[in-house]
Automatic annotation (TrEMBL):
InterPro entries: ClpP/crotonase-like_dom_sf, Enoyl-CoA_hydra/iso, Enoyl-CoA_hydra_C, Enoyl-CoA_Hydratase/Isomerase
Source organism of the structure: Streptomyces prunicolor
NCBIfam families xrefs: PRK07827.1
Name of the protein in question: Enoyl-CoA hydratase family protein
Family, as annotated: Belongs to the enoyl-CoA hydratase/isomerase family.
Family annotation (SUPFAM superfamilies): ClpP/crotonase
């Protein structure tokens, strides 16, 4: 069963995370299918831009704790979004947690609903937002990121815009996206690719410098005793043992 939906309208390919039963958690299969779909879009001259969206009330709940992707596979798909020679636009009408915020940061433009909420929940289950920091650190406000990385607090779309996670927040996301997609349709494809390359150079430098270390950190933390306790507590809907 496929977990990535695909449609196309006037040169815009829409890829939908389509596993609402798991709140579109980043499973090994979802990451693999997303990578395959992005690769096809990158090679297709008829695709002017990609919209990354979702079904259900959650854009992405983060890593699938029952079937997580290998850290290097998540790094690869984040880099793939950043390197794709077509703009990638996130359309967010639901909530975003943990690894889902890495997807959001990898996109070139992100528009979210004013009803959406966001949280870096990693520290609450005994891990760290390691590999998703690759696109996040170069693109977001460091003070905001420090607060929400360290506390796991939930924040709203207005704060997500201020922090640099969203380009814009709107009551009607599709209405807000319409002029953006129209602009992309009017842009020359080679000019779009070169302009995106200018914009992503610093992000890709972070991948080149830090990907190996952050992948190792993620693997180490996910294998730790605290992570086992945190994930068990999450699945059992209780506080982990360290909560005071």
């Amino acid at each position: 069963m496929t977990v990535i939906g695909r449609t196309r309208t006037r040169g815009i390919e829409t890829l939908s995370l389509d596993s609402p039963d798991t709140r579109n958690a980043l499973s090994a299969s979802l990451v693999r299918e997303l990578a395959d779909a992005l690769a096809e879009c990158g090679k297709d001259a008829d695709v002017r831009a990609v919209v990354l969206t979702h079904t259900g009330n959650t854009f992405c709940a983060g890593a699938d704790l029952r079937d997580p992707p290998p850290p290097d596979a998540l790094v690869a798909v984040l880099r793939q979004i950043v390197e794709l020679p077509k703009p990638v636009v996130a359309r967010v009408t639901g909530h975003v947690r943990a690894g889902g915020l890495g997807l959001l940061a990898a996109c070139d433009i992100a528009v979210g609903s004013t009803s959406a909420t966001f949280a870096f929940t990693e520290v609450r289950i005994g891990v760290a937002p390691a590999v998703i920091s690759l696109p996040l650190l170069p693109r977001t406000d460091p003070r905001a990121l420090a607060r929400y990385y360290l506390t796991g607090e939930r924040f709203d779309a207005t704060e997500a815009v201020r922090a640099g996670l969203l380009t814009a927040a709107a009551g009607d996301v599709d209405e807000a996206l319409a002029p953006i997609l129209d602009g992309l349709r009017r842009a020359a494809p080679e000019a779009l690719a070169e302009t995106k390359r200018l914009l992503t150079a610093r992000v890709l430098e972070t991948f080149d410098r830090d990907a190996a270390d952050l992948t190792a950190l993620s693997a180490r933390l996910f294998g730790s005793a605290q992570a086992r306790e945190g994930m068990t507590a999450f699945l059992e809907r209780r506080d982990p043992a360290w909560v005071v």
